[in-house]
Amino acid sequence: MTATEPTEGQLKAGAVLRQLRDKKNLSVQEVAGQMRLDPKIIEALEADNYRVIPADTYIRGYLRNYAKLLGVNSDEIIALYQSEALAPPEIIPDVKHSTQVSSSDKPVKAFTYLITFILGLLLLIWWRQSDFSLINTFRVAAVQEPVVKQPAVETISTPTDTTTEILDTIPANSAATGVEMAPLPPELTSAAPVVSGTDSPLPTEVAVVAEPVGEVTASDTPAVPAAAVMASETPVVPAAAVTASETTAVPVVQTGSDMSAVPGPDTIYLKLNADCWIEIIDRFNNQVYQDLARTGEEIRLTGTAPFQVELGNAQGVILEFNNKPFDPAPVTTRGIARFTLGD
Amino acid sequence: MLSKFLGLFSNDLSIDLGTANTLIYMRGKGIVLNEPSVVAIRKDGNTINAKSIRAVGAEAKRMLGRTPGHIQAIRPLKDGVIADFVITEKMLQYFIHAVHGGTFFKPSPRVLVCVPCGSTQVERRAIRESALGAGARKVHLMEEPMAAAIGAGMPVSDAKGSMVLDIGGGTTEVAVISLNGIVYSDSVRIGGDRFDEAIINYVRRNYGTLIGEATAEQIKHKIGCAYPANEIREIEVRGRNLAEGIPRSFTLNSNEILEALQEPLTGIVDAVKRALEKTPPELGSDVAERGMVLTGGGALLTDIDRLMMEETGLPVIIAEDPLTCVARGGGRYLEMIDDYGDDILAVE
């Protein structure tokens, strides 16, 4: 027997089951006994009154068992039950899923790419900036390629946008010219400001020459000829001074039309008995010197007073300002001296 | 912190880590994975530790009992608990990746794993650790009968007793639940695997023929039954005759299988009877009125509801889609976890 009889289309599950039970001549009690259920539940099922039964899962189970007992396809009965308008009593309320974000969602992906892009951009900017600052540091150190090669003298000039100009003239090919250059008296270098190639009356830019004895400081200038180092106390000469003094016909490269590389009138002489960090800033806020000077070095600096001086290890430095000794001891705290010279 | 962030991009999962099958329910999506808990391992080179995963799931199951020397098909779970920790972890990892398919970040979901109620602390810790090792951000454990009852749609939060019988691959769990809690639960290590074993033993004893696990499972699915039926079904199987050493084919019928399954079925019936004995009378009367619900793969064995009904005298119904009840129940709980708190969860 099947449940596909013509009248069943309109009938509810309970009515179908009752019809089938009647055909089999079974009483409610007999069915209840076989199903081990309360006869009331069987009656409720046949009346399609599902309120008595606790949960949907039980209703389906009972209907299936009942259908099986009567020998009909239980799926058809369940289909009838489901098609009924009566909503199954919900014991556990349906919960709205809060939709979860997954990384394959388009907005998330776009956002991730955006963040990655921004991070990359920032990294690039940071890298470029650190690169620039590095270049600036090098400019202060004033290490440049030789610009002009002359048989007599190689002039090394520094085109910088800072006002600091350090010009190294390094005797090149012949030791003779180096020696010839050498006798330039130190006074000449630090002589009165001589303006060349410009008619600005005031030395707005100052050339500063840092000259350690017997050694080239402040730069990793490659291979200074030994002759020059040994022979001369002033292998570094400001270009302006050289042209002005006309001692030698040394071609000088001028780096800019406004170059008025005039050394300041004031001199500082430092002799180191111990390693010491030295930082000296002149009147025009130019960094005259900034380096770790080593034991035994002698440093002669020229510039325009007042100088702001910072000595990291003041005890190890003998300081002369305009050839007068200056004792940094009174302004030294814990070895560090900060003071102004030539106020 | 990082896992919390990555968690934003993973879906909560409910995992029914079963002896026979692993099912994964994804929050908001439903059942997303149903694969046999089998892993095929390939040994690489001569060193002992050089092993790699060859296949997982259905593909690996096809290899069971059919592997050459360098491949080993392993079922890392036995009796509902972990037998091989590392392989279980690998398998879970594979499944979690599979259901998250093609995500940008490494999935790091909150995971709810169902454990047999009879499992020991050590076994639960092993399951928790392996889920964590597989990349879970947080692991909740839930007792299987509770998940099965929720998944079957039983009114677990009512002040009425509901009895659930979950016959899995490795274990059978019986529990009486009321007010979101388990009043009584018991777990016996009898399940689908024991049915298969019983069939293998029966065939060896009565036919002098050796059959494999896969064949035994096939016999169980086709003609297995738990209660004498009017109609007798038959199946033709092939196995190695022990006397001749040659594969022979022979015919088995459903009554023989019924006989073969008697021993494990009796074990389950006994467990149910024990549970009814120990249930407090009020809840017992509720159970007698409403009946018990069967879930798990074992519920698909023909006429098992009939057997239970005859043996206990209670109404017995089979849940809709009994195979996925546990995973669905865990998933349902995941959906409600924020509202209900963790009083349903198992303590470790």
What would your notes on this structure say?
The complex is a heterodimer of chains A (343) and B (348). In chain A, α2 (28-35) packs across α3 and α4 (56-70) crosses α5 (74-83). Chain A has 343 residues and is of the alpha+beta class. Chain A has 10 helices and 12 strands. Chain A has a 5-stranded antiparallel β-sheet with strand order 3-7-4-9-10, with no helix packed on it. Residues 1-8, 88-95 and 143-261 of chain A have low confidence and may be disordered. Chain B is an alpha+beta fold. Chain B has a 5-stranded mixed β-sheet with strand order 3-2-1-9-10, with helices on both faces. A 5-stranded mixed β-sheet of chain B has the order 13-12-11-17-18, with helices on both faces. Chain B has a 3-stranded antiparallel β-sheet with strand order 5-4-6. The longest helix of chain B is centred in the C-terminal third of the chain and has 25 residues, at 254-278. The radius of gyration of chain B is 21 Å and the shape is flat. Chain B starts with a helix and ends in an 8-residue tail after the last helix. The relative contact order of chain B is 0.15.
Keywords:
heterodimer; A: 343 residues; alpha+beta; five-stranded antiparallel β-sheet; 33% helix; 17% strand; rod-shaped; disordered N terminus; B: 348 residues; five-stranded mixed β-sheet; 11 helices; 39% helix; 27% strand
Q: Tell me the major beta sheet of chain A.
A: 5 strands, antiparallel
The class by helix and strand makeup of chain A works out as: alpha+beta
Strand order of the largest sheet of chain B: 3-2-1-9-10
Return residue spans of chain B where pLDDT drops below 50 for at least 5 consecutive residues: none
Please tell me what the overall shape of chain B is.
flat
**What percent of residues of chain B are in strands?**
25-35%
Biggest β-sheet strands, sense, barrel of chain B:
5 strands, mixed
The amount of beta strand of chain A, in percent, is 15-25%
Order of helices and strands of chain B: HEEEEEHEEEHEHEHEEEHEHEEHHEHEH
Read across the widest sheet of chain A, the strand sequence of neighbours is 3-7-4-9-10
Radius of gyration of chain A (Å): 50 Å
Structural class category of chain B: alpha+beta
Share of helical residues of chain A:
25-40%
Largest interface: pair, residues per side: A-B, 28 and 39 residues
Tally of DSSP helical segments of chain A: 10
